[in-house]
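Deliverable D5.2: sample structural annotation.
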Amino acid sequence: MNLQPKELLTEQDVRRGLKMVIGDGLASETMTTLTGGAFIIAMAILLGANNVQLGLIAALPTMVNVFQLISIWLVRRFNNRRGITVICSLLARLPLIFIGMLPLLMPGIVTIDLIIPILFFYYLSGAVAGASWNSWMKDLVPEKQLGAFFAKRSSLMQSLNVALSLLVALGVDYIRKHYPAFELNLYGYMFIVAGIAGLTGTLALASTPEPKTIFPKENLFVMLSRPLKDPNFRRLLVFNSAWVFAVNIAAPFFTVFMMRSMGLGLSYIIGLNILSQVSSIFTIRVWGLFADRYSNKTIIAIGAPIYILCLIGWCFVGIYTQLWANLLLLAVIHLLMGFANAGINLSLTNIGLKLAPTADSIVYLSTKNIVTAVFSALAPLAGGVLADYFTGRHLKVDAEWGGPRWTKALHLIELQDFSFLFLFGALLALIAVNRLGRVKETGEVEKDVVVRIMRSTLRHNLKESFLIGNLMNGYSQIRNVFRRKFF
């Protein structure tokens, strides 16, 4: 198959290419859903992974982003992004089939120590392919269709993720309950299906045309050093790195906590994750509207405290004796986390684009991705070490009211194991937010002003769209009538 770029793409070439990109997106989403998130954690726990190993697995996807430098060098050396993407995707997706075959053909030798190096190669090859793919898509997708096309692609991928992850979670829980001896085999089949789906996506990419582009031969390290000499962009890197470190020291262990400490099944965990995704999907447009109208920095200043409160909320999960009470608290936390993350992640991406000079935007953003990847990778490793340290330790706070006839004890909070980790992450996130004030962004608006406008907008939308709004209007009208008659 000819993987060389073409000098000129026809309109028909572009239309066919966009269909192939959507096909690859659906195949890739199938692959990542079956081999990532709660499923890879569940498999690792089944294989006896400790907290440090679980942290390493969580760190791998971001750790390998440092190797995007390889992709930049390859693209500038060969000027063939399709060839690089297809070959590296092939190298990334074949190991998944190998992992899946291990428990089926050689169950006696399957250990987490064997799985982790294979996963590292999988993520490394995928990172190199991903960086090349981003540059390729920027030239393939027409600029006027950029937002609409990727919105459509993302919505299809998210819909597939929701349906597939819930279906597979129910299947895993069923096997766990009725045929526990076959659970590891089930994960093996999942990895094989994921690898085949990934290879199907690679074939779609191989059929996608690439417009020819000649890249300059400037020294790579000189190019990447320019953003570090920009004082304001450097301050953004400090904040962004501190924030992702604080978030990732705790977030990868949410699933571990729910599985190990609470004993929740995968169907519960996936359901809560879907709840968070839905919250994010339905609120990201609101965040985008206010980010464009005011500033990204303001949106981060609003969303970050909400996320910090969610981290603190995790410390209270599990203190109730009734399952429904814990699930209700988890549902509220996941809804708020989805809401906050939608604004924070969108604004972190946009503020990087905004502060990067037009001529050097790719260089600035590559530097940002590489620097933050280091801290994103270190955080879960540090979290695993801390989780091991806090194992067997606890802090209990009770309140007691005593009287002549009765005494009432109230269980306020109990920190143990992962709860310490969540509280530590919240404290680090609070420190990180204080670094945000040093970043300068044009068009900044005070946070309190934006909060008041958001409240007013939400109130207006409620009145326009929901029953509660009609009730509020009806109450106001009745009150006005009484005022006119009696006052």
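Annotation notes: The chain has a mean pLDDT of 84. The radius of gyration is 25 Å.
The annotation will be released with the project's public dataset once the embargo ends.
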